[in-house]
Specification:
4 strands, 33% helix, alpha+beta, two-stranded parallel sheet, two-stranded antiparallel ribbon, flat
Amino acid sequence: MTAPWNRIGSRYKKSGVRGIVSAIDQRLRRPCTRLPEFHSCQRFFRNKYGLEIGGPSAIFQADTLWPVYSLASRVDGCNFSTSTVWEGSQAGLGMRR
């Protein structure tokens, strides 16, 4: 088995920072078992209203580590720009000013 640092270094050489970020994003998006600690935190999110800066985030969607969106009554998102280095263009995604 390849050591994690070797795999990260290989990915960086092959695809740069964008490749590393993409690999992390893919890992977070795949369905998985919820973290055991999440069970004790659910009461903080159930039927609450929230504001997520820079969202929506894949890790908070259903069938992920922290499925907050499915518990909350509503979560609004706030982005400072329709185009960022880390997200690219988000024009046309239903954003309002």
